[in-house]
Recover the amino acids of this structure.
């Protein structure tokens, strides 16, 4: 039979040690965030809908983004036991220089729209963490100011090739003179994707103060105070713009860029060249032949072609085919350190985080970016320990199995589809007007060589 007694004060004392309250509200909420999803929840509460949706959203039905994240969830790890994992090393060399973590901050556009500290917060946090920071062509801080914020760290510049080639290459020249060590050439944006959230929100630069945006802003006064009392939003690489984001992008991007142009760009840059937006094995092989230093498997965070290939699914084959010749990096859908470790195990040399970084920025400015990096770094180290590895070099495909919910159509059905004759235009009866076919109109199999376009054509 249980005997009860009145507890003594000395028995209660060890149970009544209260945690010292944290008076700093920002620190309190960031300390409570244990995952990137926690930071996202904070960011959503503190950021107006149009700005948050610009970060959160993707193209059309947002299927590509959902599939990319699902791919990381659908993995199975294979740990080894009884290994000494009292210490782990999470760094190695990327593009010829050391990094402390196998991830860096991806280039993001309109960043000061998300939170007023913008790229400076990211550059400062990256410098402290010893990881690269990438500035977008569509960034809202100048090339030189980002370099000043991260003077001794790894700064990468992401290039969109514009219709105005001279203007694009002037940016490349500025980045080289400022000491950026790597050029990320983004190649999956011949035109802007259909980002329907932005259209529905009327997302524009500068923000449009409609009745809806005013009502949405009422519980978020800090964002508006910061936005209205700091330097007006401008871009790292172009003049101020007044209009929708889609109009801006379509007015700039050049749909004629090809491999010949890429070779020309590479010849202008003194540092490392990485091509961002690779989505099939044939293009990856052509880039190796071109001599690029690295490639990023990416579908632009699901923001361009919906139903695009899943980069994480593409990774193992690309790594096998070209990994011995160039570095293979990965982005899209990464939301945890486990995602990063799985990517390294399947052959990636490096990964990049975009939304995860912006969630931290929106949740708490520079301190929020620090928290993003801390969460991912802790998760990377813990996952490695649980797998029984001490260093990134020990990770290999045997540590991960990709479990796929999406299976290709069975081979016999594909073969049958290929035997269907091509559709032809219906034959019209009656006389047709005679046409003169010039020699220049004849289509041949020989490639047409042309000089890269350095300036926008006159219309």
């Amino acid at each position: 039979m249980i005997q009860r007694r009145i507890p003594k004060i000395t028995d209660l004392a060890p149970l009544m040690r209260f945690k010292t309250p944290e008076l700093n509200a920002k620190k309190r909420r960031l300390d409570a965030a244990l995952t990137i999803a926690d930071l996202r929840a904070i960011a959503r509460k503190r950021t107006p809908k149009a700005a948050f949706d610009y970060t959160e959203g993707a193209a059309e039905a947002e299927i590509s983004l959902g599939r990319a994240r699902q791919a990381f969830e659908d993995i199975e790890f294979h740990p080894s036991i009884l290994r000494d994992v009292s210490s782990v090393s999470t760094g190695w060399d990327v593009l010829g220089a050391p990094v402390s973590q196998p991830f860096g901050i991806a280039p993001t556009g309109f960043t000061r729209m998300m939170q007023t500290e913008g790229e400076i917060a990211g550059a400062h946090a990256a410098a402290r963490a010893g990881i690269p920071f990438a500035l977008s062509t569509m960034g809202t801080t100048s090339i030189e100011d980002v370099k000043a914020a991260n003077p001794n760290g790894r700064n990468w510049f992401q290039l969109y090739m514009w219709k105005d080639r001279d203007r694009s290459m002037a940016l490349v020249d500025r980045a080289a003179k400022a000491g950026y060590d790597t050029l990320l050439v983004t190649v999956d944006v011949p035109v802007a994707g259909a980002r329907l959230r932005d259209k529905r929100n009327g997302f524009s630069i500068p923000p449009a103060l409609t009745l809806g945006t005013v009502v949405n802003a009422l519980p978020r006064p800090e964002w508006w105070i910061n936005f209205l009392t700091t330097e007006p939003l401008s871009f790292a690489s172009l003049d101020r713009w007044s209009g929708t984001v889609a109009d801006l992008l379509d007015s700039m991007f050049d749909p004629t860029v090809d491999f010949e142009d890429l070779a020309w760009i590479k010849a202008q840059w003194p540092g490392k060249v990485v091509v961002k937006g690779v989505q099939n094995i044939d293009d990856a092989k052509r880039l190796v032949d071109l001599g690029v230093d690295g490639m990023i498997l990416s579908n632009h965070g699901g923001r361009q072609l919906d139903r695009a290939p899943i980069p994480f699914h593409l990774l193992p084959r690309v790594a096998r085919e070209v990994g011995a010749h160039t570095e293979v990096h990965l982005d899209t859908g990464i939301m945890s350190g486990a995602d990063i470790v799985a990517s390294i195990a399947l052959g990636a040399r490096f990964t990049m985080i975009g939304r995860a970084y912006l969630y931290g920025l929106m949740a708490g400015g520079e301190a929020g970016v620090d928290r993003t990096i801390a969460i991912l770094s802790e998760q990377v180290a813990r996952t490695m320990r649980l797998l029984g590895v001490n260093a990134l070099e020990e990770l290999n495909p045997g540590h991960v199995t990709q479990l796929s919910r999406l299976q290709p159509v069975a081979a016999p059905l594909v073969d049958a589809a290929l035997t269907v004759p091509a559709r032809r235009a219906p034959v019209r009866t009656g006389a047709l007007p005679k046409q003169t076919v010039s020699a220049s109109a004849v289509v041949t199999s020989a490639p047409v060589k042309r000089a890269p376009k350095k300036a926008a054509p006159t219309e």
About this structure: The chain has a mean pLDDT of 85. The CA atoms of residues 36 and 128 lie 19 Å apart. The longest strand covers residues 272-278. The two ends are 97 Å apart (CA to CA).
